[in-house]
Amino acid sequence: MRKKTVQKSSTKGNAKSNIKSNARNSVKSSAKNSPQKAVKTVAPTAENVSVKQTAIIQEPSVEQYKQNVPTKQPDLGPRRSVAFIGSECYPFVKTGGLGDVMSALPKSLAKLNIDVKVIIPRYKCIPQKFQEKMEYRGSFNMNLCSDGKQYYVGIMEYQEDGVVYDFIDNDEFFSWGNPYTNLIDDIPKFCYFAKAALATLNYLNWTPDVVHCHDWQAALVPLYLRTCFQDTDVGRAISILTIHNLKFQGIYDRKKIQYWSGLPDYVFNKDCMIQNWLDANMLKGGIAYSNKVTTVSNTYAWEIQTEEYGEGLAEHLRYHNNKILGIVNGIDTDIWNPATDKLLAADYDEKSAIKNKKINKKALQESLGLDVDEHKMVIGLISRLTNQKGLDLVNDVIPGIMDEHTQVVVLGTGDSQYENTFRYYENKYKGNFCAYIAYNENVAHNIYAGCDALLVPSRFEPCGLTQLIAMRYGAVPIVRETGGLKDTVQPYNMFENTGNGFTFDRYESGLLYDAINRAKTLYFENRKSWDDMVIRDMNKDVSWEKSAKQYKDMYVGLTPRD
């Protein structure tokens, strides 16, 4: 039985990566000039020469014959080539759920006979261990701005798990320490990135059936496909835009976006790019020009077409509602697996969960300075500390739920008002409240494994991953019925002993308080039913397998242009 402690510190405990890099040899392909007449700077490499070997021919035995009979391969359906274009991808760079999706979904699609390429910027913050394994694939100069100004585009490549990762290299745009800085700098950066990604596909002579772009940072890709690249090979691809969070849209001064993008005048109209007369909206333009728009849950696909959740684009989205589709996210169940998680005091599966979660609870309590008592109910909260995540509701209910039988653990950073409030509660409820104001992967894994329930009371939640991870680790989610939370958490039914969490609908602190108390009542008064729900949660399929098949069906159903 392994046992590891969690250190309570805002500066210690860097995340441990359990992913093994098995980089394969680089794919050799012929190259083709981009529409900007790129000149290649590398010569083609020589192909390996096959060697014929002689062998003594012998009559095979019956056993050998049986071993040599080929097994029938499953029919994986039509093959498609898909280029993913986005601003982040785990484990290279990640700030949120987008990085997880850009990592896990391509790997799942590769297992379904999809030829996948992922294109992201080569930020300087990408760990050196990955930088060292990248291979140079070429470079060219590309026209970008409306005045024809040219910029260098370098291509660095990395391969793993059947997926090819191409990194767009340009120090002028990507030498910053973080992927996002501010709109003044980010608008030119992502105008360049969207166009450079398509030019790279042409340069590498890699023509996809589908170009799948993500969020506003890549939202100009569908517009470039149908304008600057419409007469090139990549221009025949269909375009899909996935909205991970509608709140962020890339809205800025029209003249600046028009200059940096170099897009034609006719896309700058109220039905496409223009918003509020003087501004341009990159995400709005991407929605207008894409063949399909997806969101990361079914409920969110409907919610964003309402004024309450539409973030100013509800009418635009309703106009394009015939091409909007919701597909719920999954999680990487190889990384998030309590049976193999080396960060836990004791690993476990659904058969040993009830026993071994107690071991992990004790380790969590000891490491975070909480009173060690297996009979107390531990409620976890792992989140960015912002209004979107329902922290104002949590702040309201803490005094009511804290008693001698309850402990609360908060992990995250964000708005100073919430950071300071949770520090205050830690001091007020010493031994029963922990405010870990940082993000530490080690601590996160131990909270999922050691807590009994996990709070996700979001104001809005496109999908949400914490409730999926919580269920995987046998922590019962307490969530608000919005977006992906509603799609993935079935409310507990005490009469039928069904469901996998506790939910509330309207965004009110009283309803959150009621949901927490319902959870506490079941935990303390009917532990058998609580344990049944823990096992149901761990058996729930939260992987990417089902969702990846839905994406593949969508790709197959859309026909590239002639």
Structural description of this entry:
This protein has 562 residues and is α/β, with parallel strands linked by helices. 34% of the residues lie in helices and 17% in strands. The strands form three sheets. It has a nine-stranded mixed beta sheet, with helices on both faces. It has a six-stranded parallel beta sheet with strand order 15-14-13-16-17-18, with helices on both faces. A three-stranded antiparallel beta sheet has the order 8-10-9. Strand 9 and strand 10 (279-281) form a beta hairpin. The chain is elongated and about 70 Å long. It starts with 61 loop residues before the first helix and ends in a 5-residue tail after the last helix. 48% of the residues are buried.
List the helices and strands and how they pair.
Layout: H1 62-68, E1 80-85, H2 97-110, E2 114-121, H3 128-131, E3 135-143, E4 150-160, E5 163-169, H4 171-174, H5 183-203, E6 210-214, H6 221-226, E7 238-243, E8 251-253, H7 254-261, E9 274-275, E10 279-281, H8 282-289, E11 292-295, H9 298-303, H10 314-319, E12 324-326, H11 353-367, E13 377-382, H12 391-401, E14 406-411, H13 416-428, E15 433-436, H14 441-450, E16 453-456, H15 466-472, E17 476-480, H16 483-488, E18 502-504, H17 509-525, H18 527-539, H19 545-557
Parallel strand pairs: 1-2, 1-6, 2-5, 6-7, 7-11, 11-12, 13-14, 13-16, 14-15, 16-17, 17-18
Antiparallel strand pairs: 3-4, 4-5, 8-10, 9-10
Enzyme class: transferase
EC number: 2.4.1.21
Keywords: Glycogen biosynthesis, Glycosyltransferase, Transferase
Distance between the termini: 60 Å
Low-confidence stretches: 1-58
Widest sheet: strand ordering: 3-4-5-2-1-6-7-11-12
Radius of gyration: 26 Å
Helix content: 25-40%
Number of DSSP strands?
18
Task: Report the portion of residues in β strands.
Answer: 15-25%
Q: What is the tally of helical segments?
A: 19
Shape assignment = elongated
Query: Averaging pLDDT over every residue, what do you get?
Result: 88
The oligomeric state is single chain
Structural class computed from helices and strand pairing: alpha/beta
**What's the main sheet like?**
9 strands, mixed
Function: Synthesizes alpha-1,4-glucan chains using ADP-glucose.
Binding site for ADP-alpha-D-glucose: 94
Protein name: Glycogen synthase
EC number: 2.4.1.21
